[in-house]
Amino acid sequence: MAVNVPGLVAVAVFYIVILATGIWASRKSKKVEKKCISSKSEVTIVGGRNIGVLVGVFTMTATWVGGGYIMGIAEAVYSPGQGLIWAMGPFAYLITFFLGGLFFAKPMRSKCYVTMLDPFQLHYGNTFTTALLVPALVSDILWVACILAALGGTISVILGLSSAISIIISAAVSIIYTFLGGLYSVAYTDVIQLFFIFVSLFLCIPFLLLSPAVTDISQTAHHNHSTTWIGELELADAGKWADQMLLLALGGLAYQALYQRILSAASSTQAQVTCFAAAVTSFMMGIPSVVFGAAAASADWNKTAYGLPPPFERGEAGKILPLALQYLTPTWLAVLGIGSVAAAVMSSMDSVLLSSASMFTQNIYKTTLRKQASERELLWVIRVSVLVVGLAGTGLAFGDDSVFALWLLSGDLLYCVIFPQLFCVLHLSCANTYGAISGYVVGLLLRGLGGEPVLGIPALLLYPGWREEHGVITQYFPFRTLAMVCSVICISTVSKLTELVFSHQLIPPSWDFLRVFEEKEETEREEIRPQQNRDTLFTKF
Predict the structure, then answer these.
(1) Which terminus of the chain has a smaller tally of CB atoms within 10 A, N or C?
(2) CA distance 78 to 495
(3) Rounded CA separation 357/391 (Å)
């Protein structure tokens, strides 16, 4: 396939604009560092806590509307056996942001945390916090792989350029401006990227619907049509559907990228408003992808230069959005569309890179490895971490896995392991380290025993309704949700039991090897002592 030179030039110009914006924002970040009373590393991580509502909404939305989101939705709507019913992204993220604004934004922002792991470090200590970083880091690397794979497939289809080259160039651009400017570079480039995504994708809709090769999608939506894109949900599949919906909706509440935006707001109220506004905008940004999937499912591919067999039969369902751009829209619009995918990829990738780097630097390096580290040293640790996570995700992006599958998988461990921990540490006063460790082990164990076909992990525990498809066992029971719920129950139950036995001295205090209740008593004495001093002072007078 010949290289599309005009398209290549257009994409190169777009990349240069994004890189220039990132470098400009990095200079703004340095000016803020000089004026801000916060540390330099905190300015890099949460922008000095002065990111405005408008920029906050843009960067929050752009982070979630990534390559996995826009291409994953189109893939699900197009794929036979799935359809719109299985394209859960818009509805799931609507739930994520509303729940985030109602129950998570205020507890996190009001206490001025710097990362999502701060409350764990405060309540459980450094060792358990390090254990929580592992699944968070794995999820971020998978997310990077997902969005880069989406871009590689798109560029290879439209520009005729090797997907490996496009992945490397896009990763390099994102790493460079994130490396230089931290959250400021991420936030301000997100504004441009989201605007570009919005204009280009919505502009494609009328051209797709009016394409000579596309049957009216209102006709193909009916269940009696052979190429229906609505899909259907059978009772036997309800467990799997609910599992994936809850994974995307509640798993999204355990991403550091979410709390990076919440914690960068000037106040708790502003953080909540940002979440509620992002719920609406992220839902809207899913509409073009639904149209892409519906149009592709309704198209007679024999009337296009693509020919037969159709993409699904060729195993190219994961590339359906760029294929629809290339063969169902004018050439100039296809080039514009590739820019939107590139924008979506970079708007998510930079956020993921910074979130992993922030957690490692703030919660591991600064508090455990190098407590006396200077601010300059911490800035370089953030930069090196950005580079390492970026390279790891880029390496995984060269696989042939489905974008939709990688998108789901990136939130898997967060949903089963970290979400129950975060819910309990913020909303259950009884939660302690014994319960947290027990819940961590139970959630991870139950999830691991369920297997994962994408990673080649066999299922050792067969839940009700399992099926063997093409030699691979697929679970149709909501086993991820079971793992999450069991983790919450385990955290609360073990925490209550340990509190009961130690407070009533049913077992010797010396058995409290984690010193949970000893430290709790010391904390309570420190809280009571100032009150006693005040009472004594008033008695004298």
Answers:
(1) C
(2) 47
(3) 13
pLDDT at 183 over 70: no
Dmax (CA) for the chain in angstroms is 95
Q: What angle do CA 506, 508, 509 make, to 5 degrees?
A: 110
Can you name the residues that pair with 469 across neighbouring β-strands? 472
Q: Per the structure block, which two tokens stand in for 77?
A: 């709507």
Question: How far apart, in whole angstroms, are the C-alpha atoms of residue 412 and residue 419?
Answer: 10
Of 196, 237, 230, nearest to 465 by C-alpha is: 237
Whole-number Å distance between alpha carbons of 467 and 455: 18
pLDDT tens per residue across span 248-280: 999 999 999 899 889 999 899 999 999 999 999
CA 506 to CA 274: how far, in whole Å?
A: 48
Here the tokens at position 187 are 């936030």
Kindly write down the DSSP assignment for every residue of 198-265, as one continuous string.
Answer: HHHHHHHHHHHHT-TTB--HHHHTSTTSTT-SS----GGGHHHHHHHHHHHHHHGGG-HHHHHHHHHS
Question: Over 60: is that where the pLDDT of 530 sits?
Answer: no
Name the burial class of residue 209, with classes exposed (0-12), middle (13-18) and buried (19+) by CB atoms within 10 angstroms of its CB. middle
User: How wide is the angle at C-alpha 36 spanned by C-alphas 31 and 40, nearest 5°?
Assistant: 75
Backbone angles phi, psi at 313, to 5 degrees: -70, -20
End-to-end CA distance of the chain: 91
Confidence (pLDDT) at 227: 66
**DSSP-assigned letters across all residues of 382-397:** HHHHHHHHHHHHHHHT
Q: How many angstroms separate the CA atoms of 38 and 525, rounded?
A: 31
List residues bridging with 473 in a β-sheet: 468
Task: Tell me the C-alpha distance between 374 and 105, whole Å.
Answer: 30
Query: CA 370 to CA 444: how far, in whole Å?
Result: 29
The runs of H, that is alpha helices, within 125-162 are 126-158
- Express each pLDDT in 2-13 by its tens digit: 677 777 777 778
Asked if 435 contacts 128 with a C-beta cutoff of 8 angstroms, the reply is no
Q: State the pLDDT confidence band at 414, using cuts at 50, 70 and 90.
A: very high
